[in-house]
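Notebook, bench 3.
Goal today: get a predicted structure for Aspartate/glutamate leucyltransferase from Sphingomonas gei so we can plan the truncation constructs. The sequence was checked against the plasmid map this morning, with no discrepancies at the termini. Length recorded as 261 residues. Pasting the sequence as submitted so the record is complete.
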Amino acid sequence: MTALSRFPRFFVTSPSPCPYLPGRQERKIFTELTGQHAGELNDALGRIGFRRSQSVAYRPSCAGCTACVSVRVVADQFQPNATQRKLLKRLGDLEVTACKPWATEEQFELLHRYLTSRHPGGGMAAMDENDYADMVEQSPVSSYVIEYREPSVEGVRGRLIGACITDQQADGLSMIYSFFEADSETRPGLGNFIIMDHILRARSASLPYVYLGYWVKGSERMAYKTRYRPIEVLGPNGWSVLTDEDLAVSMPVPARVRELA
């Protein structure tokens, strides 16, 4: 392993407004993933809470705030609840394919619809086809685009309704970014289905974890990540299972309850 791989150089971004918690500033520490050992470095950094974006590994490093917590589902212990079992059955006819990391026009159009529906004012809203191609193809590690399609009819491939850029790490699957038909009336719950499909894929491949990125304490937008149990959180003493008591302490109080208090 090269000296750069053994001792990567880290940098810190300038503070900017936090997209999850109003009134707070976010800052990231990051390093470049390059060379023949980029995959090993990405695996090692993933185990201590880093995420990949193209050829960069990063994690939050915010002054005075530790709300962002790395989370990973324990794949072989996951037991879907009744609602999740119904969703798996209802969407079980979807055709799922692990594709090489090559951007397509169909994927970009789906991403554009997703961002328009779910994140119209977000930082990715202005992405064009070239930006998306960089997002998918500039990967120095083992990466795939998992596609979710409606069933084929008479040999014609079904419509693309979901996709996820996914890394295969030594100890699991890392869901880099998923997008889907967010306003589908006929197939609601696609985002949840994609997560559960990854959990089942990891289990069948004997990979212990599915990395879901960051759970942001106090952000209702990120609360969905705690639905997949058991889920581990990364703290000062390493990874530990998130408990119901942890959730009770950290979950935000709904606005209506605050008004009545």
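Residues 65 and 156 are 51 Å apart (CA to CA). The first helix runs from residue 3 to 6.
Flagging this for group meeting.
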